[in-house]
């Protein structure tokens, strides 16, 4: 569930125009007449990440459960691709129980670790899922 959550967040972040920025800081005027406002990239801004975390778990209905035949380890994989192309659904369990339990797990993780997720995703990193 955690990996599916991070996959979705990373994909959403990648969809944002890299030139898009947001103003951060104080809009109060300093005694010298200047303002302490900084422009930061919008994609990894706290405002954008908070917004993504509020709606990312809705995407869990696009996932199914796959069991590795060798290890019998369960994992969640997308059943609907982001671009609408057909996907290999062989050996996939896809029903209301799977999607509702995944959505619940996603919401629990997003709620409990919101600050840590925002802090971690605000910087670009390798192997984010791990």
TrEMBL record:
Coiled coil: none annotated. It comes from Mohoua ochrocephala. Residues 1-128 form the DUF3456 domain. InterPro entries: CNPY (IPR042415), DUF3456 (IPR021852). GO terms for cellular component: endoplasmic reticulum. This is CNPY2 protein. It comes from the Eukaryota. It holds the Pfam family DUF3456. Belongs to the canopy family. The lineage of its organism: Eukaryota, Metazoa, Chordata, Craniata, Vertebrata.
